[in-house]
## 1
Amino acid sequence: MENNKAEVIIVGAGPAGVSAAMTLAKAGKNVLLIDRADKAGDKNMFGGAIYAHQTEEIFPDFIQNAPIERNIVNQKIFMLNDKNSVQFEYYNPENKDTTFTVYRSKWDRWAVEQAINAGAYFAPKTLVKELLIQDGRVVGVQTGLEKFYADIVIIADGVNSLLAKQLDFRKEIKDYDVTLNVKEVIRLPQNIIEQRFNLRGDEGTACKILGGPLKGMFALGFLYTNADTISIGYGVGLDELKKNKIKPYELLDNLKSHPSMERLISGGEVIEYSAHMIPEGGYNSMPKLFGNGVLIAGDAAMFVNNIHMEGTNLAMLSGKLAAETAIEALNNSDFSQKTLSLYEKKLKESIVLKDLHLHKNTIKVLSKNIKTITAEYPELAAEFFDIITNADGIPKYIKYRKFFKKILFSGVILKSIPLALFILEKCIKK
Amino acid sequence: MNINEKLATLKYNKDSESHLKVNDETCAQCNNKYCTYICPADVYEWNKDKREMIIRYENCLECGACKIACDKKNIQWRYPESEYGVKFKNG
């Protein structure tokens, strides 16, 4: 790199940043990718799983070459009550090669290597303190020691994005627009994981966990199987955590010790504890996405669709679209806001804004109905099983009536109607 | 497994100066002290006698929750300097 000047500087080497770097490097553009960690991935964490569809757009041969853990062909939903649980399991071997669990330490490192091989420059151990702005245009970045200049800066510095804030492209995030997520990685022998989750070979499962210790709160637990570890954790609205005045690691311990969870991780060794925030405000909390000489991608732009556990793939896609916009701008030597508005146009034509727009009120609706979803449904599901499976000598009409009365008097039907209508609206609306 | 055992699974490089700062007088006025609950690493602890916030910045997981949770906007938050702070071996 000459004179500390690149065509594009990307701040943050997470999924959004590295995808932008790959796209730009492959197009022959001079790109500098910067990250504050010693090695890419050191300071990143997620659940989690990546989806092949978007990942292949950036890394076409990743299935053969990337450090992936398990091939997710099994999805589970746990509905927990205090002592019991009802579980739904969907096993489809045809879903092979669509979803994979990975560790961010390994994945991010591998991804950055691909970007370097494609021609990108990578500067780790570099904390960007602020953007350099001249005449209303972003012209580069200031690190601890140096200034680096570029025609375009892509901000991909994650959920806390201090750079988006510096530009006043977004206000301080509200506590109801983020979830705090805590996770433990627990080591277990591969054959034990396979037995407990009914998997063969490199098959894996991705699980969502509702209720139990998390009931009544806007919170969702998760469990992913890696080759020889389990990742278990949950996310909870930061406003909920404040309201309940509970320590996040205590809530995690409560989840782990639920009878249905405990047996899945029993005998395992906790090898890592971590935490991270995930944006959840969606469409309504999005910052301004572009300006003179600048674009924002990934979590920094609040591009997360929590309902579908999509954040990493949206980050990759938005990084690619930001890069494509930058390529267009570079080819025309025009880095103005007007030219860079192409970014938003591309996002609107992609699932990034299409899905976020569709779900812009979903969090609000789910929050209002959270008790129904996390406490009443699991209870009714368990009771349903008790009624149809318990041969306890009680005449069936008595049991059916009791169940029916319970549904009627709990008001769950009434409460479910707006929820059902809301879902229906999502099926009809574009 | 208590919080210290959980944090012991991580690698940290402690800087000589804290990357997290508060104004203790403002903390003294705060009735909620949400930071002392919501921090996943137990960084914040209110010392009633000395009327000051103990900040165990060396344990920080750099999630950013405290900055947003503090209703008094009293936390000066930044990332640790490069080469310092937490490292996730797995993520």
Note: The two ends of chain A are 46 Å apart (CA to CA).
## 2
Amino acid sequence: MGTHDRAWAGLTLLVYGKRPMAPMQIEQAVANASPANEVKIESFEEYDDALDFCKSQRDVGFVLLHENCGNLPTADVFRQLAKPYEKKGWPCFGVLIHDGTESITGLKTMQQCSNLLKYISIQDLLDKRKTALILDDVWENFSIAFQRHVIPRALEETFLSLAKPELTTTDVHFMDRVNTLLAASLNLSWIETISLRWAPIVGAVRNRNPSALEPHEALVQICSLSNSSSAPNDMLEIFQTKTTLCTRLGHSIVALNRLRQNKMLDSFLKTLGTQNKPGAPALLRLIVNERDKILQIAHEEEAATYHEAAG
Amino acid sequence: MRSPTNRTLRIVPFNPSDYSLAEVLSKEDQSLTENMRDISAALSLYFQWEPYRSSLVYPDYKSKTKGVPCSMDYDRDERTPTEISIIIKKEAFSNFAQTQFQKLAIRFEVFRTCYEFEASALSPPEIFNDDYFRIIITPPRALKTFKSRRLPRIEMTSILKEKLPKTTWNQAIDGQNNEIDVTIEEMGLKSIKVKCSQRLGKAFGKLKMGDFEIPAEATPTPEGDSILLFNFENNESFGRYFDVYRLLAYPSLSPRSSFSADAIIQLYQMSNYFGKFEGEKSNEQIRDIKSNWKDLETAQHLTTADYVARDDDGAPFGASSVALSFYNDDRPVWVFHQLCSMKIEKYVYLTGQLYMWRAEYLAARPEPLEIAVWFHSRSRWLERIYVKYSMQTNYNSNVLYPIIDRRCTFEPNTNDSSIKLREYCVGTARRICTTSSPVWAAAGPRFLNANENLDCIVALWGNPTSAQIKVHGETISSRLTGAPTTILVTVPHDFNINELGGAPQLSDRFCHFKKNQLIDLLASVEHSIAVTTRKFNNA
């Protein structure tokens, strides 16, 4: 999940540390595990060069920091490298890397910098068998952390509440689970996964209580990437539109939910199956291949709502 | 080497069938992976780097004869392909559409590593975008990997052929010497592919190019051509051939001697080659540099090779050199050194050529040899090349060392006869080096490297002490000049060098590797240049 083409879209990853050759070894380990992201990662052993790079690029949103920063405190180094990106209003995250054994200093640094998400071993990162797995895990953590920054838990509950009754709990859970199911196989960026998750809810809040969104410009901006509010009714039309994958997936999920609401999901997916052939759009093929799971999700969520209502 | 603006030079893509035709430098065992992440990474590399890839489809997947050039693609909405489109030009396989495929074999190459897999056809061939056929296949479940063990070969266009002297193949047939006109179709440093009016059998003979001859062995190909594998008699002969080859492969390169010394000095000054090391040179030093270069002229291809790249206006743009600098027991150790270039973005590809020619040149030299190079890791381009290379060859191999350098002066106090020294000529100048010591020490002539970087001691192995290093330095001083000699000392980065004193120097990395690993270095250079260029263009 952290190695596909658009995993880190819009970001540059920076590796920094003073241990000789370690930053470039980490850069190359990531490049070998994820050739698609090779040009998105840059490494440095000179602090001034790293900082100048961050200032000139202003898109270094993720730092892989080796805990050997020479004479400079590691936490300070992270904060300084993160600053140029954070001036744009977005948080910068990272991971701290140790030489095989966690150190007291490293653990302190992790406490001081809540945006350092994991404390990992360089040996694991450089192990060809593990690099991709670590990248996947890091990406997952990064996406969750960023989402949590943009929409804290309290706000999440508020929005869910404001979205009702336009979006019921069943709607929200069904769309969220189907999104998770389908997005795992699609070439989406970290920010698009957040957009897809929240766009239906933000759309419903906009319809019912637009002023509630005014303080949350960042979230609204992110959700506009999937633009699920203007979904075509005909799902087959969605596959043919020349919009971004994020928009097409967003529309597809809304359309699937609508079909579920109208008790037409099963029959539609059967019909869609006749369109599934080599060369058909990837999104169509994916939905057809995951038909059983989609129906299962629909069944489970509807059953849960029924039991809740009955209980 | 592809340039962004000049695509008349075509590198012949690697065809794994070729490697059986006596051109292999060394072949790695074919490895098979069924790890989906490894397979995905290899495919990702292919899809990312269109200018550096090629692929062939084999309709007869069992025998894998008659590969058809193709390209692969997939629906970019997917993270990893669940089906792959094979796209073939109609003219490449005219009866493709009529052929029933169940299984196909695909070979693809990217950055000189070749992969092979079998796949099932998911659809019959169909016409695609008017001029192409498309067939959709399953993605690979297993991937065979083998590295290209062949030096680059240049495809000879009619324009390139005009640059070559008249070429004939001379071999004895039935006791009679026959001279046969040949047309060179592909040209490499160790071999060429030729077409002749008559089919050549497997035989020894001589290739005559203009006024010099190269012994070679001819091997016919199934297509009716012949591969001539060279057997250079000496390095002069190799050097002469290199100077023909580089006209085609590296058209911007010329020997340093074809420029005035003043022009090259100016290049070094303007590119900050002097400035980043010792600072600008005094008039006396410049005079001595020019004098040394005169001494070195006859060393070209024997113990040195010095080339300069010209820009589009013919002015010197950059320079790079190789020099026989040490002996590791009996094995000559050549050093990449003295690379400089003007920092002009549109000439990034020329800078790449200044790296590539050296690796190709040494890989093709007839004698066994080793290679060494110093660099400063602050050049992320260089760090990328050599770290990528060291990780691709073997994650655990000691080829790349973090070091510190000091420039120390050694008095000629000691002449330790237990240190075995060897003396050889570099042109009309003299060089002395150790032979069978874990400490490499060598010096002379002073400006073999214009920054005096090849009067040096490399003490990275065998845990030498400062005292041992000092003895080596003093012995070299004593034997070379009998006068105090300033020598660059290279030690591991955590060595306590303070006892030796000296002035800190710039380089902080040392790389040492074997000749048969140069192919991997070529791949690493090419890949690193591609990455750096793309990063620059994206910025």
Note: Chain B is about 25% helix and 35% strand.
